[in-house]
Structure formats: C-alpha cells, structure tokens
Design brief:
Low-confidence stretches: none
Order of helices and strands: HHEHHHEHEEHEHEHHEH
Number of strands: 7
Shape: globular
Distance between the termini: 101 Å
Largest sheet: 7 strands, parallel
Strand content: 5-15%
Strand order of the largest sheet: 4-3-2-1-5-6-7
Length: 285
C-alpha cells in the first residue's frame, strides 16, 4: 500500500540563517569588501563625511598642510639631545651623525609648529563665534604640523577636522581633532575632494611629498580654472624658494609669469590670516 504524502515535506537542507547569503546586502561586510563593490565604497566615503559635516554645521574650511615630522620645538630639542649622546658614543658611525644633522635642520623648521598653532587659534577664535562654523581648520589628521593646526583650534574650544587615510604603517589621528569630525578614508581621491569641497584657503607649511602633492594639485585647479575661490599661502618663503625654483619654471615657459600670482608668501600667523581675510572680503583682526 502506498504511503500517503506527508502534510509537511521534509526539510532537505538545514537552513542556517547565519549564512552570508541570508544577510541583507547592506549588512554583509564581506560583500562590501569585494572588488566589484568598489564604486559603492567610494560613494559611501563621499557621502558619510559630507553628511556629518552638514550635521555639524561646517560651512567653510581652511586646509592646513605640512610635515608630519616637524614636532613641537621642545620635543625636537629632546630628540636632538638624545641623538647627540648616541653619536658621541660611536663617533665613527656616519648614520648617527647624519641623524644629528637632520634633527638640527628639523629643529630650525620647528618654529612653524608654533606658527601653525597660533594661526589656527587666531582663525578659530575669530570665525567660530556665536555658533558659527566658518573657516574651520581641516588637516590630514596626523602628527607634526597637522597636529599643531588641530591643537590651535582645541586651545580655544573650537571645532577642527581631521581627514586620516589608511596607510601600510598605521597613522593614528592626533588627539586635538574634534571627535565627531575625525574621519578615516580608504581612497585618496575622496579624501582630496573633501579637503577642497568647502575650502576657502590652502595654507602650506614646510613639508614633504604629501604636502607637495596637495599643493600642486590645488595650484593646477587654479591654473586651469577648475576652482577660483581658494587662495594658496606658502608659509616660509626661504624654504619654498629653495625647494621649488618657480622662476625657472616661468623662464622655461613651463608656467606663465601670471601663474606666479596663484600663490602668496607669509611668515607669521597674522600675515597668513590677513591674506586670507582680504581675499575673502573679511575684516582683518
């Protein structure tokens, strides 16, 4: 005799609801890390930082670049003392002597840490009064000059932004960034966009490849007319004219004489702010 069919067919497979296939797509972190989802990740990086800055009322920014290796003078003075002691213990060690020479040069440039901090204090106390969030300092979020700029804003209880980037060697955000405005990016391109989306000025202190990269990218945008609202200020004329022979570029016809007016020089925090304020039609302090 044939058996009557079961009212409930047997479950052929044990259903594991923890399987990644059962997860909602936006909750599947493994899916979001696939190469095919790169465009989605790029969009998320752009939108996340934008929404948070809107919520925090950030209307305009000043971008500050400079070396991560230029610590505050006291720290570099201590590092120099230690390096000199180590060099004295091995007078024939060329590497130790070279390190002493490098730290001495960095100590000469360390005054710019104080200038960056003072500039940030000046701008933040002037432009973030009465709940306004104009000309908010934004940095790459790391140590050195970036730390100094974020620190200056913190000195006067003002907001500042840090745009960190994931690197092969870990970079921790400096402790002076406003926590709600401390971001981390995977993609350099999106980070670069956020540096300039609200920028009214770019202030470049002595720095290395990263500073030069952002500087030349902004100058190119100005030269090609892609942006007109940003003023570029180079702090430390002696440093910049030794690093880059601007006049040679013009003499060779690689840039025009008019291109030399795309940037300005300053030495002090007040000079930097005066240039920015005049460019944007604001009263100077």
């Amino acid at each position: 005799m044939d058996e009557e069919p079961s009212e409930h067919p047997p479950n052929l497979y044990s259903q594991d609801r923890s399987s990644s296939s059962y997860l909602l797509a936006d909750q599947d972190t493994e899916l979001l890390q696939r190469d095919e989802l790169r465009s989605v990740r790029i969009g998320l990086e752009l939108v996340k930082a934008e929404l948070i800055q809107r919520e925090e009322g950030i209307r305009s920014t000043i971008v500050v670049f400079g070396s991560a290796r230029l610590q505050e003078p006291a720290a570099l003075a201590q590092a120099l003392h230690l390096a000199e002691e180590q060099a004295a213990q091995a007078s024939d060690d060329g590497i130790r002597k070279q390190r002493v020479a490098i730290i001495k040069r960095q100590l000469e440039l360390a005054t710019y840490y104080d200038v960056a901090r003072e500039f940030s204090r000046l701008v933040s106390s002037t432009c973030q009064a009465n709940g306004r969030c104009d000309y908010v300092i934004v940095t790459g979020g790391g140590p050195g000059i970036m730390e100094a700029a974020n620190r200056g804003a913190a000195d006067v209880n003002a907001k500042s932004i840090g745009l960190n980037i994931t690197l092969p060697h870990e970079q921790r955000p400096n402790p002076y960034i406003t926590p709600k405005l401390s971001f981390q990016f995977r993609y350099f391109a999106i980070r670069k966009m956020h540096f300039l989306l609200r920028a009214r000025a770019l202030v470049a202190f002595p720095g290395g490849f990263g500073t030069l990269d952002e500087l030349f990218e902004t100058l190119t945008l100005l030269q090609t007319g892609k942006t007109k609202s940003i003023i570029v200020v180079l702090v430390g004329r002696h440093f910049w004219e030794r690093v880059i022979d601007w006049q040679l570029l013009a003499e060779c016809g690689l840039i025009t004489q008019a291109d030399l007016s795309l940037f300005h020089y300053a030495e002090t925090a007040q000079e930097v702010w005066d240039l920015i304020a005049r460019h944007n039609g604001m009263p100077t302090v």
